[in-house]
Structures are given as structure tokens and as C-alpha cells.
Design the sequence.
């Protein structure tokens, strides 16, 4: 009976994804198909048309064209009536949350971590919508390119066509390519609505991962993190150095004609770690208080700093042909000051400011003060070049329930903030799955490189678990450091933007990111249950690692 039940669950998830795609296709106009004989259709211009248009007009008149494009959706309307754009965003988020619920339910029925269900169902609906050429799904699949194009348009004031010529290569603007698809959507009917909906998804998903890491920090204390500090530092160093060197070596052997800068970028991409997936698995399995979880979380914070330093080194080599030690020193000093200051003085700062904040809004301050703290520290981390989630995690570390002992609401901060995290965090994982293009597996030569990158990426991180010390499951620590997630994609996109990472290599890296992201929840659950690591009590029931 179990296999039949599993089959029913999988079929139900797929049918739901198809229905969602068809529903979206009927509500959101799909991309135009090839016109029949005698018909005409407005499409994004080819590279030659871009050039001819720019030469003929000398850039003049494009502002008018840009305003006309932006105003076109307004003129068409919906039967001449008024449509609130936020209404579609509400529907969009409702459907994403519903899909995430189905994914979690399916994963739980298959005895897998719920985050795996959210990722996989995101992959399913994302690729179905992409194959149906639904504009929203196309923009999500090429979210990095679409965001870069929109940034150029808003910052420079260029028309969409002019901006596209600076963002995409001529090959990418050929019909059927990613650039052509994105430009067709963002310069056609309903462009503003599509852009707003994609931005809303991005906004809610980023809120989700911020709240997730904040909640993880709430369930960890500064003292416990300091106890595993030396081991976390060692794990992070090994987890960066080994994958980087292996990545450079495998690139040199498989891509002998590639420049050294490409080898360095591949190595930098393989050394990245995305802690969001691992943190969610530990949280789902109620094992955040274990030494393994604390070592991984501490190592991930240090890993983020080391990864950014390596990225700065590589970018400096590519851009200027040399190293900018001043930038590296700046990043090291500011990172140490921020994280050290938060850990050393953050708890006192919170204790001093809570009485003041409680006078402003006594009824809701136990919800609002932690959120303000998380958002501000996230901004501070981003300002010095770190991932915003590092700041959110640090904010959770310095908050304790004893700070709110005099408050009338006896619920814990986790109980108050938890519903927000439960709403937004699944959006992040579904959106991550929706950006996985299964078509990249079919590119010539890509699959072999992807296998090599994936093997090196996994082995390189598992090795770092060997230095985790005694009284911990070293394999679980290594597996917890494996997922690359959005961090790996960011590193790869930087290399692609600089022109040192080819489309084939980029696709191989994307596949590596997909595999490491999807296998970690399954492998980590197996590893934790293999050793019988107990669920988290109020206090750890096993001694912390000895140093």
C-alpha cells in the first residue's frame, strides 16, 4: 500500500502544478507564438534592429518610446475598467503558499524533510510554466537577467531597448534566447504587472529567508556559539580552502583552454555555502540545539566572510589584473567589528533599549522590536558586503526571553514571530525551485562538467567535517555544509557578468547548485537518524565539543 500512496501523492502534486500553470496561462497572457501567414505580431527587436534603431535615432525619441511602452498596459486595461495590481499579488502569494503546503505534505508523507517538498514542487511548477511560456514563470526563471535589466532602466533612464543592448549579448537577444524572451515580456502589454508580480515574489522570499535565519538565531545563544567557535572556524577554513583548490584543479584539467580567471571563479563558486537549507532541515527535525547544528551555523557565518574575501580577490584579478589588498583588509576589519560588536555588546544594547521601545507600543512591541532589530542588523551586514542573513542570524543570537520578563504577553518571541516565518520562508524555497531550469541538463558537454563539479563540491565540504572535533557526528557536519543554494548562483552570475564564465560552464554550475541543494535535506536527515542524534530538548543533553 505504501508505494501506491506515494504514487498518489506524486501524481496529486504534479496535477496541482499543471492546473496552476494552466490557470496562470489563462490569466496572464503567454508569450506570443510564431505568427501565422498574413498575421503580424510585435516582438522584441533582434540585435540588428537594436543597432539600426540606435543609429537612426541617435538615442533621441527613446524616452518617448519608453514612456509609451510603460503606459501601454494602462491604456489597455481590463475591458476599460480599473484593476488593482495588488489583487494579483495577493492571488500569486496565496497560490505559492498553497503549493508550498502541498509540497510539505507530500514530503512528510514520503518521510522526507518538508523543505525538500517545497524545493521540488517549485522545480515542477517552474518548469511547467516555463514550457508553457507564461510570462511570470519566464521572468522568474531568468530572474537575475530581468533584475539587472530593470536596474539599468531605472538607474540610467534608458529605454528598455537601449538598456537591453547593454545587458545582453547579441546572441542572447536572438529570438528564443533568454534575453529576447525577457525583453519581449518587459516591453510588451502587461509589462508593469509582470514586473510588479516578480518583484513581489522576490520581496516576500527575501523576507522569508531573513525571518528563517532570525528564528534559527533565536534558538541559539551567544555562549553556545562561542563554545563551538574554534571548531566552527576550523570547519569553515577547511570548507573553503579544499573546495576552492579542488575546483581550480578540476577546471584546469577539464577546460585547458580557459583563462586562469575562469578557473579561479569556478573554485570560488565551489567554496560557497548556503546555510538556509541546512538551517531549515535542523529546525524541521528539532535538532537546532545539537552541537552539529551550532558548528555548522557558526562555520557558515565565517564561510560567508571567507567566501566574500575570495570573491573580492578573484574579481580584483579579473577587472584590474591585480589584487586590491585595501578592499580585502576593509572587508576583514568591518566584518570582525560588526560581528564581534554584535556578539560582545549586542545583548547589553538590547537590554538598555527594550524599556524605551516598550513605552512606544506596549501591546505589540514584543513582535515589533525583534523584527526591527533583525531588519537593521541585516541592513548593517549588507552594507559592509556580507549576506543580509548573517545580520538576521546575529540579531537572533543576542535576543533572549529574559529581556521580556516584565512584558504582559507570556508567549515566547519564537511563538510570536513563528507564524510570519511559516508564511514567508516557504516562498523563498519555492522560488528557489522555480529558478531551476531542467533544460540546462541537455546542453552539450554540460552534463560531464556538472558531474565533476558536483562530486568535487560534495567531497570538498564533507572533508571539512573531519575537523569538527569529538562528541559530534562529523559526517553530519560535512553534509550540512554541502548546499550552495543562492550563494553559489550569485558567485557564478558575477563571473558570467564579467565574461569569464561561459554559458556552458554556468549551466554546469547551476546543475551543481541544484544537486547539492536538493540532496542535502535527504542526506542530512539520513545522517542524523543514522547516529540517533536526539531531538532538541530545552538544553543540550550531550556535552559540547571539547577543544
Sequence:
Amino acid at each position: 500500500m505504501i508505494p501506491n500512496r506515494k504514487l498518489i501523492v506524486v501524481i496529486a502534486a504534479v496535477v496541482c502544478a499543471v492546473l496552476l500553470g494552466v490557470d496562470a496561462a489563462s490569466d496572464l497572457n503567454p508569450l506570443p507564438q510564431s505568427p501565422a501567414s498574413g498575421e503580424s505580431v510585435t516582438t522584441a527587436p533582434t540585435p540588428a534592429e537594436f543597432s539600426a534603431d540606435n543609429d537612426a535615432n541617435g538615442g533621441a525619441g527613446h524616452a518617448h518610446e519608453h514612456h509609451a511602452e510603460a503606459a501601454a498596459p494602462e491604456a489597455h486595461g481590463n475591458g476599460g475598467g480599473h484593476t488593482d495590481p495588488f489583487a494579483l499579488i495577493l492571488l500569486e502569494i496565496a497560490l505559492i503558499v498553497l503549493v508550498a503546503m502541498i509540497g510539505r505534505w507530500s514530503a512528510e508523507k514520503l518521510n522526507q524533510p518538508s523543505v525538500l517538498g517545497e524545493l521540488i514542487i517549485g522545480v515542477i511548477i517552474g518548469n511547467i510554466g516555463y514550457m508553457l511560456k507564461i510570462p511570470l514563470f519566464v521572468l522568474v526563471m531568468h530572474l537575475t537577467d530581468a533584475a539587472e535589466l530593470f536596474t539599468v532602466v531605472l538607474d540610467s533612464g534608458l529605454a528598455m531597448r537601449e538598456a537591453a543592448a547593454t545587458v545582453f549579448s547579441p546572441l542572447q537577444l536572438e529570438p528564443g534566447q533568454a534575453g529576447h524572451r525577457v525583453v519581449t515580456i518587459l516591453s510588451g502589454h502587461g509589462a508593469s504587472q509582470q514586473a510588479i508580480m516578480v518583484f513581489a515574489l522576490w520581496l516576500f522570499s527575501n523576507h522569508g529567508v531573513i525571518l528563517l535565519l532570525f528564528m534559527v538565531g533565536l534558538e541559539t545563544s551567544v555562549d553556545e556559539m562561542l563554545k563551538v567557535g574554534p571548531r566552527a572556524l576550523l570547519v569553515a577554513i577547511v570548507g573553503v580552502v579544499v573546495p576552492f583548490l579542488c575546483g581550480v584543479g578540476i577546471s584546469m584539467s577539464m577546460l585547458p583552454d580557459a583563462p586562469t580567471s575562469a578557473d579561479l571563479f569556478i573554485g570560488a563558486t565551489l567554496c560557497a555555502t548556503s546555510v538556509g537549507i541546512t538551517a531549515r532541515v535542523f529546525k524541521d527535525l528539532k535538532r537546532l540545539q545539537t552541537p552539529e547544528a551550532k558548528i555548522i551555523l557558526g562555520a557558515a557565518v565565517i564561510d560567508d566572510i571567507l567566501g566574500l574575501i575570495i570573491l573580492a580577490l578573484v574579481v580584483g584579478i579579473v577587472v584590474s589584473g591585480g589584487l586590491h589588498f585595501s578592499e580585502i583588509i576593509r572587508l576583514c576589519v568591518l566584518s570582525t567589528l560588526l560581528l564581534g560588536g554584535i556578539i560582545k555588546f549586542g545583548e547589553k544594547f538590547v537590554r538598555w533599549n527594550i524599556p524605551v521601545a516598550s513605552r512606544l507600543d506596549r501591546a505589540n512591541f514584543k513582535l515589533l522590536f525583534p523584527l526591527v532589530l533583525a531588519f537593521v542588523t541585516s541592513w548593517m551586514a549588507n552594507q559592509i558586503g556580507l549576506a543580509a542573513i548573517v545580520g538576521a542570524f546575529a540579531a537572533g543570537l543576542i535576543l533572549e526571553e529574559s529581556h521580556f520578563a516584565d512584558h504582559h504577553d507570556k508567549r515566547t518571541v519564537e511563538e510570536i514571530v513563528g507564524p510570519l516565518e511559516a508564511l514567508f520562508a516557504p516562498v523563498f524555497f519555492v522560488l528557489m525551485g522555480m529558478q531551476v531550469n531542467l533544460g540546462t541538463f541537455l546542453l552539450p558537454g554540460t552534463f560531464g562538467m556538472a558531474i565533476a563539479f558536483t562530486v568535487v563540491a560534495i567531497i570538498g565540504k564533507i572533508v571539512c567535517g573531519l575537523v569538527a572535533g569529538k562528541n559530534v557526528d562529523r559526517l553530519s557536519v560535512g553534509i550540512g555544509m554541502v548546499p550552495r543554494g543562492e550563494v553559489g548562483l550569485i558567485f557564478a552570475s558575477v563571473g558570467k557578468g564579467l565574461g569569464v564564465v561561459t554559458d556552458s560552464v554556468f549551466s554546469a554550475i547551476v546543475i551543481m547548485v541544484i544537486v547539492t541543494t536538493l540532496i542535502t535535506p535527504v542526506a542530512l536527515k539520513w545522517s542524523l537518524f543514522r547516529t540517533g542524534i536526539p531531538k532538541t530538548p530545552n538544553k543540550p543533553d550531550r556535552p559540547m565539543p571539547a577543544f
The first helix runs from residue 2 to 27. The radius of gyration is 24 Å. The chain has 23 helices and no strands. The chain has a mean pLDDT of 76.
